[in-house]
Specification:
single chain; alpha/beta; 12 helices; 7 strands; about 40% helix; globular
């Protein structure tokens, strides 16, 4: 790695499990000390972070590392994680959004499109209410405010990507990327957001996206064109 690379390039790990998070933070700390960007605005990050510990968020903050949490893990599998797969002291704390919001470095929410629907409003509702899709509460101490959840879904993400001067909020000089909602999300009860707030339109760079046309184009893609990639990936998995 070039000695100036950490300043010019961002790094990100996908990680679940506290042991894995320790390994990632060890690697980051070693690289940051070796290449001297400790204390700089590097904005390296770690994503997912199921089963992370509170002290690890504190260590990440000291290193200037940002975190991106995966609400979908809690929303869809929280009932299973808390008490069945793991003891409540671990399972109930899955996706420590509350601890993440205590960090000085902005925390974000994300989805994996291939694993769960990219449903931002659902993420916001369940991180605020700390309920799973079944309506059960797990780890109420990790609930966040509506403002925190909105920031984790907008401006904080722009910050992590070093694009907060371009996107993430509606301001003069930024791209007009936004959605039109059917209701004021701040006037709706948090547990009714998914039911009462719908996305009526999406704008990118000030232009409204024709979602019907977009979906039509996606549906028209010939999957056989990518069959070789699929076969290669399948073969690699079995070879290893």
């Amino acid at each position: 790695m070039d000695k100036y690379a950490p300043m010019g390039y961002q790094m990100a790990f996908h990680c679940n499990g506290d042991v894995g998070f320790d390994v990632v933070l060890d690697a980051y700390e070693n690289a940051l000390n070796k290449h001297n960007p400790i204390g700089t605005d590097h904005r390296w990050r770690v994503e997912h972070l199921g089963a992370a510990r509170a002290d690890q968020f504190q260590r990440a903050e000291r290193l200037g590392v940002t975190v991106s949490l995966a609400p979908f893990q809690f929303i869809y599998w929280g009932d299973l994680l808390d008490g069945t797969m793991f003891k409540p002291e671990y399972g109930s704390q899955w996706q420590r959004a509350g601890d993440g919001m205590k960090m000085k470095t902005p925390t974000t929410f994300h989805n994996d499109g291939s694993v769960s629907p990219p449903d931002t409003l659902r993420n916001i509702q369940h991180m605020v209410t700390r309920t799973t899709d079944s309506g059960k509460v797990h780890g109420a101490n990790q609930a966040v405010t509506l403002d925190q959840a909105l920031r984790a879904s907008t401006i904080n993400g722009a910050y992590q990507l070093k694009r907060e001067k371009e996107i993430g909020s509606l301001e003069v000089g930024k791209y007009a990327d936004f959605v039109e909602l059917s209701a004021d999300i701040t006037a709706v009860k948090p547990n009714e957001i998914v039911e009462k707030v719908k996305v009526k339109g999406t704008w990118l760079g000030g232009k409204k996206i024709d979602t019907a046309k977009f979906l039509e184009q996606i549906s028209a893609i010939d999957p056989t064109e990518h069959q070789g990639l699929s076969n290669s990936a399948f073969k690699n998995v079995h070879d290893h």
